[in-house]
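Title: [Solved] Reverse transcriptase zinc-binding domain-containing protein 3D structure

Original question kept below for reference.
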Amino acid sequence: MANLGKMDMLVAGKCPLCNKVDEIMIHSLWECQKWKYARLEWLSKNALRQRNHTNFVDLIIDCAFNSNADVLKLFCVITWRLWFLRNSFVHNVVN
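Solution (posted by the thread starter after getting help):
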C-alpha cells in the first residue's frame, strides 16, 4: 500500500489488518501484530532471532545465513501463506 501511495494512487496506505502503521513489505509479511502467533512459533523453533530488519530482503538474508535450506524453505512457505491470508482478508475471500 505504501508503494502504491508513492505512485500517486489513492490508497489508505495503512496495514489493512492492524490499521496502525504504513503497510510496507516487512510489516505485511512479518511484523504485523496479526501475525504474532506465526512469528513467535517460528522464532521459538529456529535460529533466526527477532531483530529489527530494515526490509523484507534483510529478513530473508538473515534467515538464509542463520538457517539450513529446509528451514529457509519453510520460512518461504510460511510468509507466502501469510501473504495469501492477507490478500484473502483485503479482498473479502473466505478460506
